[in-house]
Amino acid sequence: MFLVSYKYDIVNTDNINFIQACRDRNNGDDELYDIVAEYNEGRVILYKHLKYDELQEKLDYLCRILKAEQLY
After folding, report:
1. With left for phi above 0 and alpha for psi between -120 and 50, is residue 61 left, alpha or beta?
2. Mean pLDDT of the chain
3. Which of 36, 47, 48, 71 has its CA 20 to 30 A from that of 57?
């Protein structure tokens, strides 16, 4: 399966080593987050400038995709 990154890069989920959520430091007082995937070719931002509730939603979505892929 493939994911499309924030900058429209194609990432093969087979190559993802881990996913992490990082606080976006470029937004001053706003509590915004980015989701970054570490994979064989480097790092890529999957989602950028997420509010906390959006962050939880996207992480749940990514976990379901990755878990479903392991079952195949």
Report:
1. alpha
2. 86
3. 71
Where do we find the tokens 């194609």?
10
Give CA separation, 70 vs 13, 16, 28, 37, in Å: 10, 12, 39, 17
Instruction: Give the single-character DSSP code of 41.
Output: T
The partner residues of 34 in beta bridges, in order of sequence, read 22
Question: Which of the four pLDDT bands, split at 50, 70 and 90, describes residue 72?
Answer: low
What does the alpha-carbon distance between residue 41 and residue 10 come to, in Å, rounded to a whole number?
12
> What single letter denotes the amino acid at residue 58?
K
